[in-house]
Amino acid sequence: MEKLSFRHTTRRALPGARAQAITGVVASGNLEVLLERVLPATECMVEIETAIHGYAEVWDAVIADFVARAEPGGLRITVNDGGARPDTVSLRLLQGARLMEA
Known about the structure:
By secondary structure, the protein is an alpha+beta fold. It has helices at 56-70, 86-101; strands spanning 2-9, 20-23, 31-37, 43-50, 75-81.
């Protein structure tokens, strides 16, 4: 397993009051994303565990795009990857952010 960690600064906290959310299922080339509202309002941390080695640059780009789109301030996000494609990763992250806004 490869473990990756990314920290980003945001301009604001993600709206909403939900404490945590989960999207996806680790199976058949997918991934599980757990979002927790536990960090200061202008911080976001994403921790990834993946069996696919050598894609840190791709993960970095996908996470940076997600942060720019969603402004997920205040969230610690844990990703358990089962070999998902970048578009699936983006979808699950955005779904999780939407759940947290509810």
